[in-house]
Amino acid sequence: MTGRETGPVHNRLEGAGVPDTLTRERRCELLAAAEHDEIVPLAERLLADGATPPPTVVKAPEVGMVVLQVREPVEETRFYLGEVLVTECSVEVDGVPGWCMRADDDRVAALAGALLDAVAAASPAARAEVDALCAAVAERRAAEDAAEWADITATTVAFEELT
Amino acid sequence: MGYSGVRGGQEAIEAAERLVERARFGGHSRWLELDQITERLGPAVDRVMGEGGLWAPHLAARAVRQSQGDLLEAAQLLRAHRSTLPRLGYSLPADTAELPAVRRVAPAHRNPPGGQLLGRSADFTPRLLDLGPEGPAGAHTCEVPNGPDLPHDRLPESAGSDPEAVLRDAGLLPDRRNTDDPEPYDITRAPARPGTPRSARLSAMARAETGSLTHLWYTCGRSPRHQSPEIPLELRRGRLPLRVTHPHTGRPVTVAAVQVTEARTVRPIARPRPDGTRFDLGYGLCFGENEPKALAMAGLDLLVHRDPHTDRLEQKVLIALDGPEASGFLEHLKLPHYVDFRSTMERVQAVRAAAGGRA
After folding, report:
1. Which Pfam families does its entry note (chain B) (predicted)?
2. Which chain A residue has the Cα nearest residue B149?
């Protein structure tokens, strides 16, 4: 495992003897990439089953913008390309923080993402379900990427010069 | 010039708005779903997001639908909505060298490092109006043939991400790299005026109105002062990750991706002084699939770097290309100007009388 978080969350998970297969950032990335219909039902079910204590909403889902900075190649200086619509949410589950930021303005999905992020860090049992969802998202993205690459390679061109 | 308000006309205004709503919501055709707009009118949505300065495909699709396809109006709607949203933060700097390209062409090189990928493009297809059957009858042409035997995994972009390396290695490109890493100029917080850093120019062009940008590049780039040929080194499209710092770990995390078009272009320096033995390089990057915009931006970046003052080019690039600003001013001309016109007419009559004419 690389890039693992240190601190109380880490110690608690180690004490439970459950291997953490995803870094916190990778899990956040995959939860951000998941569809609404993937993460919201799982979050609702974990809450309904009592598999996780009720979350405390630290920061309610907020729709806003993140400025996209780009480093351009001519002078290698930064400029602002524009802004990206995102929704951000922070929660706590049993004292463990969870955070989500994802594209677009889906507040419910952002809340579900933050909850799953916290649950995965707080509860080894629930983590397996969250990580299974993340694995499915990763697999889907890989398949989409492979299909796109297959299409693109068909357009590879090497022109011949007429002499 | 001063303006004065008018009173009345409320019923007529409401009736006029109802006619607009009838056009939006009435008619006999099916309701236009947002997915239809984002999937089938992608370049229009991309253009609105670029000119609105906000990457938000579904909001842009709403704007296109509300404006009934008027893209200038749609950009204005999105820009206005943007002004109501809080700014939650800044991304970590994205390097386009890591852009996974879905299209990469190199007009200057036949065999660039990493090869050329035409991607989805009609560059070599006759631009003829399709009068074929309506609907999905043409779907049989959607199957893409197998490509050459390339690696199954996507090639690393580092294989083809430095198109100016050939010129730089040959000593034909001035080294303009800046080691200071200044903070970017934020044109949404302070007006961009001549003399502001290049970062302001790039931001202004990234959200410029596509037609205005293209027109300015065309008129300036083809003037007799710029006889040397402009040839793009590379044109790419791909998805740029939006990375922020994770609030709990402090490490980078990717939270979204944005489609972009990138262009790099060169011109030989036409005059012998100060250094006529090299090329100038220009850079363009914009939201979405908008190749004319990226190319025109790169061309103008180059021309402003070369000569910002002639024809007030830098000023035009910074001030005259914003779609919502220009169209907003134009739109306001349709509103009542009765007092202004009376005042202007009286002034003209007074001048005429003073000149001995008939008042």
Report:
1. PhnI (PF05861)
2. A153
Instruction: Give me the residues paired with residue B253 across strands.
Output: B244
Q: Are residue B24 and residue B108 in the same domain, yes or no?
A: no
CA distance A48 to chain B (A): 27
Taking the Cβ of residue A139 and every Cβ of chain B, the question of whether any pair is shorter than 8 Å is answered with: no
Within a domain: residue B16? yes
- Label the pairing between strands A56-71 and B116-117: unpaired
Residue B272 above 60 pLDDT? Answer: no
Residue B343 forms part of a structural domain:
no
Instruction: Give the residue-averaged pLDDT of B51-62.
Output: 98
Helix (H, G, I), strand (E, B) or coil at A120: helix
Task: Test B199 with A78 for CB contact under 8 angstroms.
Answer: yes
Tell me, what's the pLDDT at B161? Answer: 61
Using a CB–CB cutoff of 8 Å, tell me whether A84 touches chain B: yes
Q: Is residue B125 part of a domain?
A: no
Confidence of residue B277 (pLDDT cuts 50, 70, 90): confident
Same domain as B210, residue B178: yes
Contact A28 B246 (CB under 8 A): yes
Average pLDDT over residues A77-91: 98
Tell me if B119 sits within 8 A of B104, measured CB to CB. Answer: yes
Which positions in chain B touch A81 (Cβ < 8 Å)? 203, 206, 258, 260, 285-287
What is the value of ipTM here, to two decimals? 0.92
DSSP type of residue B288: S
pLDDT digits 0-9 by tens, B210-254? 999 999 999 998 887 777 889 999 999 999 999 999 999 999 999
Residue among B117, B162, B281 whose CB faces A74 most closely? B281
What is the extent of the structural domain holding B198?
96-117+163-321
Report the alpha-carbon distance of residue B310 to residue B225 in Å, rounded: 10
Residue B179 shares a structural domain with residue B44? no
In this structure, are B62 and B104 located in the same domain? no
pLDDT single digits (tens) B188-216 = 999 999 999 999 999 999 999 999 999 99
B52 and B112 housed in the same domain: no
Q: Within this chain, do residues B171 and B26 fall inside the same structural domain, yes or no? A: no
Distance from CA of B58 to the nearest CA of A (A): 8
Peptide bond into B268 cis (omega under 30): no
Residue B138 is predicted with a pLDDT of 59
Task: Give yes or no: residues B193 and B258 share one domain.
Answer: yes
- Beta strand ranges found along A94-154 (DSSP E): 96-103
The number of domains in chain B is: 2
Question: H or E segment at B287?
Answer: strand B279-287
B265 domain-assigned: yes
